[in-house]
Write a structure and sequence with these properties.
Blueprint (H helix, E strand, L loop, with lengths): L6 E4 L2 H14 L4 E4 L6 H7 L7 E6 L3 H10 L7 H6 L2 E4 L3 H9 L1 H10 L3 H8 L9 H9 L5 H10 L11 H12 L1
Parallel strand pairs: 1-2, 1-3, 3-4
Helix pairs in contact: 1-9, 1-10, 2-3, 5-6, 5-8
């Protein structure tokens, strides 16, 4: 880790696939490191010598406490999402899958699933008693996280559908920060 350029720490491989694709489209080189879960953020910051201007992280809102703790370990006090952002930690409202589903809309996600030959499997999940009648966005969120490798494949498909000039938060600010750091 630490090639001298920007480093982006992400929770998992699906996040890495998406962030790498978005950065590549902008010609913004960075080392994107899947941490194997946000609980490993502190260890990754340790390996990088702590938080700093060339280190960014993308975390899910329910896991903010781990980011707060990781920064504290390095003498940085940040409690709110805004304060975390000042120190390079960007927060997804719920999680990255939710950001993508809300940004693109359920129809675009369903279309991506159709292109992956996964629409039938999604429809089966949607008809299960626990999921029947729930909003499609909730069903899609659940489906994205089920099935071996699905989350990574779907992230790659959805990255191509995002408008590079109108990326949703926190992806837009993340990409812009990498561009600025790398300049």
């Amino acid at each position: 880790m630490g090639t001298g350029g920007p480093v982006v720490l992400v929770e998992g491989e699906s996040d890495a696939v998406l962030v790498r694709a978005l950065l590549a489209r902008r010609g913004a080189p960075a080392e994107v490191v899947p941490m194997g879960g946000v609980t490993n953020l502190a260890a990754h910051l340790d390996a990088l010598g702590g938080p700093g201007p060339g280190v960014l992280a993308l975390v899910d809102a329910p896991e903010v406490r781990f980011a707060v703790g990781a920064l504290r370990r390095h003498g940085v006090r940040a409690e709110t999402v805004e304060e975390l952002g000042w120190h390079g930690v960007l927060v997804c409202d719920r999680d990255l899958e939710d950001v993508l589903i809300r940004s693109l809309g359920p129809d675009a996600v369903l279309d991506a699933l159709a292109g992956m030959s996964e629409l039938g499997a999604f429809e089966s999940l949607a008809q299960m008693p626990h999921w029947r009648g729930r909003p499609v966005a909730e069903q899609l969120h659940r489906f994205a996280g089920s099935g071996s490798g699905r989350k990574v494949r779907l992230a790659a498909r959805l990255a191509d559908r995002l408008d590079p000039d109108a990326l949703p938060d926190p992806l837009g600010p993340l990409v812009e920060a990498v561009v600025v750091i790398g300049a």
